[in-house]
Amino acid sequence: MQKQAIFQSKLLPYALVAPQLAIVLIFFYWPAAQAVIQSFLLQDAFGLSTSFVWFENYLELFKDPAYFAAIVRTFAFSFAIAISSLSFALLLAVMADKPLRGSTLYRTLLIWPYAVAPPVVGVLWVFMLHPSLGVLSRYLRAMGVDWNPLLNGDQAAALIILAAAWKQISYNFLFFLAGLQSIPKSVIEAAAIDGARPMRRFWTVIFPLLSPTIFFLLVINIVYAFFDTFGIIDTMTRGGPGKATETLVYKVYTDGLLGGNLGSSAAQSVILMVIVVVLTGIQFRFVERKVTY
Amino acid sequence: MVEEEGFQRYLAHVILWIGIAIVAFPVYLAIVASTQDNAVIANGQMSLLPGGHFLETYYQTLFVGTSGSTREPVLNMMLNSLIMALLIAVGKIAISIISAYAIVYFRFPFRMAIFWTIFITLMLPVEVRIYPTYKIVADLHLLDSYAGLSLPLIASATATLLFRQFFMTVPDELLEASRIDGAGPFRFFWDTLLPLSRTNMAALFVILFILGWNQYLWPLLITTRDDMQTIQVGIRKMITTTDALTEWPVVMATALLAMLPPVFVVVVMQKLFVRGLVETEK
Question: Where is the ABC transmembrane type-1 domain (chain B) (predicted)?
């Protein structure tokens, strides 16, 4: 795609792209290159000499059971967050898609959590489910649940997943609603004339037609769970108890803070870059197939 | 028309209200907690109805801060967040629109190479380049500054892409017409292209403002001085102290103040917000 009508100038276009290019090179490419180079180097204990060690830092990481556990945990979190948030949002979107009185009000009342920052989400949920003073914890204990996410790793993980899924409902709802509204009414009417009941219409007609949206949202939600949950984890559990809620991004952050092995920390960053590249690749390939909102 | 029996419709209303209640409950709880006495909350005896400490809590939160370790008024944190969010949103739009203009309306060597260089940054979110970027910002002496908070986040592949796509749809006749009127590249940009891009810019601004206001990891790393804290970082520090000392009403009031500007933007500019969201994710 190219414009036919253009301006002639030798220097002006460079001046126009210069600000963005400068920022991109200084704050994006330079640090990324640093990370890649650093990931092939090994520093001795005193930081006096560094040597080139090829993929040793990576091999060490993959041999490390703690790192492997963090990978598994991150993927488990991602799928749990994506699936719980997507299914709840889909239910709400299907309901809001019906010709109801007050449907714009419903939409407004459901989309605002998008704007709540992850650390704030963390604070809200920590307060609600705090073991000693949380309002909901009272009921949990009354039901006989020994609720203490500060000590119990599984409960802490559940808390993170719930809070992260809560925040993402609004986003998923919005895209599901748009997807549902783009399904031609005539298709649904045809199914109704053939005698399909609402449940059957949903599973055999609407759900398949919605599958592009579902797939798109699945990718977006996984990216979200990988990166944007940092703020939620940091305010709720700080990766604990133990390492029960430490995701890959959180691990890069804490390992870096401890300031230990530079090479290993860089290798972790590079692995994250590869994951982003793969996820973005999937997303783009899919968007090529054209979804209409 | 597909028939919708009364019962089905009734059920839809009920499910939607349950959904709204679930979504709103944590925030309702925060509102209630911010108006109650801390001692009562710490006992686990919090009532589910608002208490009488509203003015007191919000006055303390905005102008004094917590009485514990970080005694920083939240109003100041909000100001920092506002400056950062505006710098990020305006900066991203400004540098993206001029890059897109160069890429679409000029032919020059390395044009596509530059476009791809910008585009690939999509795959380098701040989370994957945390510490090397931190080091550069430290070397440039930008720690604890508004420039340090915003500059490393200001490049935008999505905004550049969006403006490029939009410019491609602008008919060539407009450029030819303004050229006949004697307009150069600056005049055409300012008088023709910019007014046409207004809706796109507004939609983008809404999304980018929310994104900027909600930044967390980056400000957490590069601000050390209390008076440079953004509200998202400040709220985390409030609950760092041992549980017994956390001033929950102040924390909850801060949480509500932290979500107020972006939620306001979403609700009031809903049309622009939805448009921006759908466009930036494509």
Answer: 78-269
The answer to whether the CB atoms of B16 and A124 lie below 8 A apart is no
Cα R_g (chain B), whole angstroms: 24
Element (H, E) at A285: helix A262-288
Domain count, chain B: 1
Q: Per-residue pLDDT tens for A123-161?
A: 999 888 888 788 888 888 888 777 887 888 888 899 999
Separation of alpha carbons A60 and A51, rounded Å = 16
Residue B172 lies in a domain: no
Does the beta-carbon distance from B132 to A38 stay under 8 Å? yes
Question: Does A236 lie at the interface with B, CB-CB under 8 angstroms?
Answer: no
Q: Please report, for the domain that includes residue B150, its CATH number.
A: 1.10.3720.10
- Look at residue B10 and tell me if it is in a domain: no
A186 touches B at CB < 8 Å: no
Residue B78, domain member (yes or no): yes
Residue B106 DSSP one-character state: B
Residue spans of beta strands (DSSP E) within chain A: 41-43, 50-52
Q: How many CA atoms lie within 13 A of A71 on its CB side?
A: 11
How many helical (H) and strand (E) elements, i.e. helices and strands, does chain B have? 16, 0
Q: Is the ipTM of this complex over 0.85?
A: yes
Domain that holds residue B149: 34-167+198-280
Tell me how far CA of residue B61 lies from CA of A120, B32, B36, B71, B216, in angstroms. Answer: 16, 15, 14, 10, 20
Residues 101-120 of A with CB under 8 A from B: 106-120
A170 touches chain B (CB under 8 A): yes
What is the tens place of the pLDDT at every residue in B50-69? 777 778 788 777 777 777 65
Answer yes or no: are the C-beta atoms of B141 and B222 closer than 8 Å. Answer: no
What is the set of domains in chain A, with CATH numbers? 14-288 (1.10.3720.10)
A285–B contact, CB cutoff 8 A:
no
Residue A180 near residue A201, CB atoms below 8 Å:
no
Q: Assign A150 to helix, strand or coil.
A: coil
Q: Which residues of A touch B8 (CB under 8 A)?
A: 98, 198
pTM: 0.88
In a domain, B16, yes or no: no
User: Are B117 and A117 inside 8 Å of each other by CB?
Assistant: no
